[in-house]
Amino acid sequence: MMVLLLALALGMTLGLLTNLSVPVALLTYLGVAVLAALDSCLGGVRASLERSFDDRAFVTGFLTNTLMAALIVFIGERIGVRELYLAAVVAFGVRMFDNLGAVRRLILERLGWE
Amino acid sequence: MGVVGALDGGPRRTFTVLRDESIRRVIATEKAVESQFHEARLFLTLAMAVGLVGFLLVAQWRGNASYARSLEAQSSADLASIIQQIAAENDAMREEALQLELRLMQAEAGGKGRSELLNAAARELKDLRLVAGLEAAVGPGIVVTLSDPESVLLPVDLLAFVNELKSSGAEAVAVDGRRMGALSGFSGDAGSVTLDGQALEPPYLVQAIGKPEALSQAVSMPGGVAAAFATYPGVQVSVSESDDVAVPAAPDGRFVVGEPIKEK
């Protein structure tokens, strides 16, 4: 767990150091993509706690989720339904809370708090 | 293979049991190491993904912050207030600039003696006399030769030509060596054009002081005077730029102030 938090901190410091800022046009895309990636990571943590983590499934899921999220935003913009990205946001948001709940329960089990 | 006691079987049996045991142990350690490796790999994958997410999060955070600061994200009311503020700042700065200019003028007026003011006035007078044609002048400009073998150029053509030069910045113009002053005018007829009562002889030589490029461009501009003259029979316009065109002063005009006749 600590290693994961460290990795997160490392990524953030890298982001802070490189000082890149996203062009306004791509903000929505990256936002939804980040959400998808975050959800994937939570899913990965949950799976590893359940001892059912499979790295191939994780990596492919991570990439396809992220790209699909961006694609949904793109399609929405193209067909004039700007709010289509909300679908992705809601879906990933719900899943994130699911995963978060599962992770919480698993950690409690680990601590012998059944 | 079951539990081993020291009592059952001989040394051979004990040996096989021990061997089995050791083999099992080796396999178990191998498995453990392998699973640890596997575990580490999975963990590394997850950690990398999490790191990437952190990176993206920060990038997005930044972008969003800058977007929120940008004008596009402001409501129209905010924009209006921003515009008002900027306009107010502008006004204040203009005011300040005016005040400073005023102070500068005052300082100049205070700092300069009468001689300086007189000099400035004299310079201005000289400039005005130059424009009015009361002073001889030398400077860069152009020299134009209008050949008119068939005597078709009218006074009005020459007037148009000179006006063209004046409007493109000629400061002093002379035709056939006669300076055009404030009261000059062409008259007469084709072939016997006069300038201020003095007959001119074709080919007409026009000298003009001003920016040479601007003047020659004005003459040879498409649809300009030269193009118009080219449609006249025999008329040819040749322009040459020169660094020192010299024009004489115009004869002093006599200025008369008119007064209305008083009715008795």
Strand percentage of chain B lies at: 15-25%
Number of helices of chain A: 4
Q: Let me know the number of strands of chain A.
A: 0
Low-confidence stretches of chain A: none
The run of helices and strands of chain A is: HHHH
From the alpha carbons, calculate the radius of gyration of chain B and give it in angstroms: 49 Å
Which of globular, elongated, flat, extended, rod-shaped describes the shape of chain B?
elongated
As a percent range, the share of strand residues of chain A is under 5%
The helix-strand sequence of chain B is HHHEHEEEEEEHHE
Shape of chain A: globular
Q: Would you identify the regions of chain B where 5 or more consecutive residues have pLDDT less than 50?
A: none
Q: Whole-number radius of gyration of chain A? A: 16 Å
Structural class of chain A: mainly alpha
The DSSP helix count of chain B reads: 6
Q: Could you tell me the mean pLDDT of chain B?
A: 84
Quick overview:
The complex is a heterodimer of chains A (114) and B (264). With 114 residues, chain A is an all-alpha fold.
Describe the secondary structure blueprint for this structure.
The complex is a heterodimer of chains A (114) and B (264).
Chain A lengths: L1 H17 L8 H23 L5 H24 L6 H26 L4
Helix pairs in contact in A: 2-3, 2-4
Chain B lengths: L10 H59 L6 H36 L2 H19 L4 E11 L7 H13 L4 E4 L2 E2 L6 E4 L2 E4 L2 E2 L4 E6 L2 H9 L4 H5 L6 E12 L17
Antiparallel strand pairs in B: 1-7, 1-8, 2-3, 2-7, 4-5, 5-6
